[in-house]
From TrEMBL:
An annotated Gene Ontology molecular function: magnesium ion binding
Main location (coarse class): cytoplasm
Residues reported to bind Mg(2+): 82, 84, 86
EC numbers, comma separated: 3.5.4.19
Name this polypeptide is given: Phosphoribosyl-AMP cyclohydrolase
UniProt cross-references to HAMAP family, sorted A to Z: HisI
C-alpha cells in the first residue's frame, strides 16, 4: 500500500525543548523560497485558523502576523511537515515582499555578496 492510499491522520509537530520549529515560506506557484522564520504552537494554530501566516519573533518574544504592519501578507495554501515532524513548510501566496529589507525574498544575496534578488518596496516608506 502506498502512502497516498493510507488514511490521513493529523501530525503531532515536535516543538522540542524550545517550543519552536523552523518554517520555510515558499511561493506556492513558483517554488521560490521566500523566508525562514520560527513557529510556536500558538502561531501555527493562528495560521491554520486564519489562513494567513503567523510566526514567533524570537527577538520580540511574541507572535507576529506576517504583513500585519507592511500589508505584505502571506496567504497560506498548505502547511507541510517534514519527515521528523520538526520543520514546517508554508506554501504561500505572497502579497508584496517577504523581506523587511524590501526584497521579494530574504534570500536576495549570494554568500559572496552578489545581489541577486528583486527589491519590490522601500522599507523606509513602509516601516
Amino acid at each position: 500500500m502506498s502512502d497516498a492510499d493510507a488514511e490521513a491522520e493529523p501530525i503531532d509537530v515536535d516543538f522540542g525543548e524550545s517550543g519552536l520549529v523552523p518554517a520555510v515560506a515558499q511561493d506556492a506557484d513558483s517554488g521560490e523560497v521566500l523566508m525562514l522564520a520560527y513557529v510556536s504552537p500558538e502561531a501555527l494554530a493562528r495560521t491554520r485558523e486564519t489562513g494567513e501566516a503567523h510566526y514567533y519573533s524570537r527577538s520580540r518574544e511574541e507572535i507576529w502576523h506576517k504583513g500585519g504592519t507592511s500589508g505584505h501578507t502571506q496567504s497560506v495554501r498548505e502547511v507541510r511537515v517534514d519527515c521528523d515532524a520538526d520543520t514546517l513548510l508554508y506554501l504561500v501566496d505572497q502579497a508584496g515582499g517577504a523581506c523587511h529589507t524590501g526584497h521579494r525574498s530574504c534570500f536576495h544575496r549570494t554568500i559572496d555578496g552578489e545581489h541577486v534578488g528583486e527589491r519590490v518596496f522601500d522599507p523606509d516608506e513602509v516601516y
